Amino acid sequence: MTTVRKIIESKARTEVFTVPITAMVLDALKVMDEANVGAVLVTENDKVVGIFTERDYARRGELKGKLASETTVQELMSKDIVMVKPETLLTECADMMYQHHVRHLPIMEKGKVAGIVSIRRLAEALLAEDKGTIAKLENYILGTGYGE
Question: pTM above 0.90?
Answer without folding.
Answer: no
